[in-house]
Amino acid sequence: MVGISQQAASKRLSRLEEERLIESDKIGNARAWWLTDNGRRYLDSSEKEPSSQ
Length: 53
Prior knowledge:
two-stranded antiparallel sheet, single chain, alpha+beta
């Protein structure tokens, strides 16, 4: 359990895919997602920024 609805998770995944940070493919009755090179670069750059917390 991740604490958000399936609808919210699907919406977020769709947005990340539109931003080309992830890609997905349907495999049987399931869908798999993975990071793109752009997604990896985004994560690498965000890890270098100081936290605002």
